[in-house]
Amino acid sequence: MRTALASVAAAVSLAISGGAAHADNVPKPTDLATQNAVADYNAGNFVAARSEFRRAAQKGSRLAEFNYAMMLLNGEGGPADVPEGKKWLRRAADANMTHAQYVYGKMYDDGQFVEKDPAEAHRWFLRAANQGHVQAELALANQFLDGRGTARDNVQAFNWYKKAAEGGDMTAQYVAGSFYERGGDGVERNLNVARAYYAAAAAQGDPAAKLKYLQLSAELEHQKPQ
């Protein structure tokens, strides 16, 4: 059975080949071996892809290190090898591939393949978020909001939600809207800004955001001078 992390490898490969609309801070394959591996992975030829990713990873390709790690962890193209997979994922993260840093942090946040350690997750989320990785920004915001892996801090939570919202994350757009709708925690209440964030999330298909957008639209219309 493929784990939740399997989709990450697929998403990265598709993004590189043009098959996915969005993948944050994923380096493009510059070497032929990695390009061939991506093509074979997308074609479903996992055995060849795994071998090609391994060879490219051994030559220092960060994307190959990451995708080889995912294939090892998920048993794609051969038997699963968790220790080896974690080693290559850490190597990609240490090489400053922000998506690898995010996934490495998520592994600790979820307790998947490792013992759950929210503080270690926080450290990796922060490294990736500080470089503009949108999913890491959202994960960091959630940690600050919950006090998980770090002290609870609603001001920091809002700052990271706003960054992720500006990066196009639908969930962050909704939450940023809710902060502006209620005000507090260093945020001045502003229904017009809240409405704009809800509209952005609604445009991406969030039904709750659409309802909020309609509610605030009606409220703001009612507040207009007659």
TrEMBL record:
Keyword set includes Kinase: no
PANTHER family, sorted: ERAD-ASSOCIATED E3 UBIQUITIN-PROTEIN LIGASE COMPONENT HRD3, SEL-1-LIKE PROTEIN
InterPro entries: Sel1-like (IPR006597), Sel1_AlgK (IPR050767), TPR-like_helical_dom_sf (IPR011990)
Protein name, entry field: Sel1 repeat-containing protein
UniProt keyword annotations, A-Z: Signal
One Pfam assignment: Sel1
Domain of life: Bacteria
Species the sequence originates in: Caballeronia ptereochthonis
Endpoints of the signal sequence: 1-23
